[in-house]
Design brief:
The protein is mostly helical. The protein is built from 7 helices and 2 strands; from the N terminus they run H-H-H-H-E-H-E-H-H. The protein has a two-stranded parallel ribbon with strand order 1-2. Strand 1, helix 5 and strand 2 form a beta-alpha-beta unit.
Amino acid sequence: MSEFYGITLETISMPFFKDFSSSSLLSDSLSVPLSESGREENKSTVVPFRNGVMLSVLASVADGFGCKYIAIGNQYTEDSIYLDSKKEFIDKISSAIKVGTDSQIEVLSPLCDMTKTEVVQLGNRLGTPFELTWTCYNNHELQCGECSSCVKRKKAFLENKLTDPVGYYK
């Protein structure tokens, strides 16, 4: 994606997530639940406070570079199990960042209250290179097509009468 837009990609390694998390998203031994799994089973994909940690680290980096904004592409719907994606959480961590830095860095989360279908619709209108996006919870060469994230993405493209340009295993 960074190449597409001609910007430099900076990567900040956070190996402690994997070292101290029991989330199936980060585990080499646990399987990510399929989309048919219930809410309780899908809770295994939660990495507690992940957005909080990442936004805190980014606030420090952004402050050092004199940035005014940090953007995050989180979504939160009523059925979501990812509590650090809630608008309330984003608003509060944004306030904490302003209080905890000398700058007035603002956290932008423009997709927070949108459904996946609305996000795909907006992305299509903006010319998003969807072929460069990754939604899957599994770490394979192709997106799996079966985890809850892939199923929601496929449904969003279908509801927008668009062809999803990424490849899926299933």
